[in-house]
Structures are given as structure tokens and as C-alpha cells.
Design a protein that fits this description.
- By secondary structure, this protein is an alpha/beta fold.
- 38% of the residues lie in helices and 22% in strands.
- The protein has a single domain, classed as P-loop containing nucleotide triphosphate hydrolases (Rossmann fold), CATH 3.40.50.
- The protein contains 10 helices and 12 strands.
- The strands form 3 sheets. The protein has a 6-stranded mixed sheet with strand order 8-9-10-5-11-12, with helices on both faces. A 4-stranded antiparallel sheet has the order 4-1-6-7, with no helix packed on it.
- The C terminus is likely disordered.
Length: 269
């Protein structure tokens, strides 16, 4: 993990219609690091992510990627540096799955040009890595919600950006595909990519996150630090409004789930 942040939020104020949610946020993600954001439904995680990406106007502060002011940069400059996996996407047009993944290569394709052999190879590799190459010719509108989520992740992988923002990437996936995605996030980390993601599953954060941020109701910033230090029964009880003893009883279960999600040993099932 490189000590220099690839993505840095400096006193970033975010919200809707000029009304801020919570206090301004300071956060950074380094090369080869995964930072996970946990918080209850409706606390503002998606709004924060969309502000980071410039999809919602910031109400103050700065977002920097590799030292570039992202909020002032042209869209092409953003797309070359940051990929985004949204929380959900129903799809309107019946594009082939392969073509949806190829859209991640758009910033690398010149005006009026067609995708190159390298672009198609990047898309094919992303589909293969996620185990969905067999869907390549299927219409995007005719596959399941979980399969669509995998396609969106494949699109982000094909983009080959140095920063990836993922909004609950495993939310609609079965247990097996959750393992696939978590392993791929670990692979991104090993390649020096900076990953910022949100999740409702603490065991996922414990497995893959180097640091964890906790955002409470009303976008209240509760903690940010090393995953094991931040995710205690007390902090999780405060975050989700449940009794601390109930959370404490779940800690052993979280550990078992993390073990179940772990990468199989070489030659194992």
C-alpha cells in the first residue's frame, strides 16, 4: 500500500438542493488500499459517492484524484482516473452484455472510432474474471439483477482506472458471487488500485477493508480508522441502533462468515 493518497476528500460538503447532510468529510484512499463505508439505509452514503464523482454538485470542499481537482476537471479526465459501480441499474436499452462492458472502454476510444482489439480483449477479460463470459451475447435487459450487478463491475474493471468507487457492490449477489466479487476487489488492491466502497455487511469490511468509515443517520461521521479497531460491538451498536449485547453475540458469527468468504486454498474446492 502506497502512502500517497490516490483519492482525497478535503472538507467535502454534500447534500441536496443546497442543503448539506452532516458535517464536511475528510477522507483519503491510498494506492493498493480498500476503504469501506458502513452506515444505515438513508444516511447519505450514495449521496456522498455521487458528489465525489461530480454527479451531484458539491456544497464545499475539494475532491482530488492523483492531485487533480476532480470537481473542476472535465468528464474525460474523471473517466480516465475513476470508475464507478452504482448500487442498482435496471437498464432501458437491450444492449448486449459485451457492449455494456465495452462502454467502460469509451474514454480510451477516439472520436468516431470503433473499439480496438485491445478494448475488446479488456472487456472479455473482465467478463471472464467475474465468471460471466457466457452472458456476453445476452441482452442486458434480460438477465437477472445479480447478473446485471456483475456486468456493471465488469464494466468498471474494463475501464482500468486507478480509483474505483463501488456503492454496495455485493448487495444483490448470492453467496457464491459475493465471494467472486470480494476476491476481485482483493486482486485490485494487489494491483495498486484504490477502492472506496459501501457495504451493509460488516463481515465483508472485516475481510477486505484496510480502513473503515462509519456514517450514522443524518450523515453523522462517527469513526474512521483501521477496520478491526473501528468495528467494535459498541460502535456498531451506536451505528445501527441495536443493543450492544446483541452485537457482541454476533461478533463470533461475523468471524465465521469471514472465514467462509475466504479464498479457498490452492487445489481446494
Amino acid at each position: 500500500m502506497n502512502g500517497t493518497p490516490l483519492l482525497a476528500l478535503h472538507a467535502l460538503a454534500f447534500g441536496h438542493h443546497g442543503r448539506a447532510l452532516g458535517a464536511p468529510v475528510d477522507l483519503d484512499v491510498r494506492a493498493g488500499e480498500v476503504v469501506a463505508l458502513l452506515g444505515p439505509n438513508g444516511c447519505g452514503k450514495t449521496t456522498l459517492f455521487r458528489t465525489v464523482l461530480g454527479l451531484i454538485p458539491a456544497l464545499g470542499g475539494r475532491v482530488e484524484v492523483e492531485g487533480i481537482d476532480l470537481l473542476a476537471a472535465p468528464r474525460e479526465a474523471i473517466a480516465r482516473r475513476v470508475a464507478y459501480v452504482p448500487q442498482a441499474h435496471g437498464g432501458v436499452f437491450a444492449y448486449r452484455v459485451e457492449d455494456v462492458v465495452l462502454m467502460g472502454r469509451a474514454v480510451h476510444v477516439g472520436a468516431f472510432a470503433l473499439p480496438s482489439r485491445d478494448d475488446r480483449a479488456a472487456a472479455a477479460e473482465a467478463l471472464e474474471r467475474l465468471g460471466i463470459a457466457h452472458l456476453a451475447a445476452r441482452p442486458y435487459t434480460e438477465i437477472s439483477g445479480g447478473e446485471r450487478q456483475l456486468v456493471l463491475i465488469a464494466r468498471a474493471l474494463a475501464q482500468r482506472a486507478r480509483v474505483i468507487v463501488m456503492d454496495e457492490p455485493t448487495a444483490s449477489l448470492d453467496f457464491g458471487n459475493q465471494r467472486v466479487v470480494l476476491r476481485e476487489i482483493e486482486a485490485l488492491e494487489s494491483r495498486g488500485v484504490a477502492v472506496l466502497l459501501s457495504t451493509h455487511q460488516p463481515e465483508h469490511a472485516l475481510r477486505i477493508a484496510d480502513r473503515v468509515a462509519l456514517m450514522g443517520a443524518g450523515a453523522r461521521w462517527q469513526a474512521f480508522g483501521a477496520a478491526a479497531a473501528v468495528m467494535t460491538p459498541r460502535t456498531l451498536a451506536d451505528l445501527y441502533g441495536v443493543p450492544e449485547e446483541e452485537v457482541a453475540r454476533s461478533v463470533a458469527g461475523l468471524a465465521r462468515n469471514v472465514a467462509g468468504l475466504a479464498r479457498p486454498a490452492p487445489g481446494g474446492a
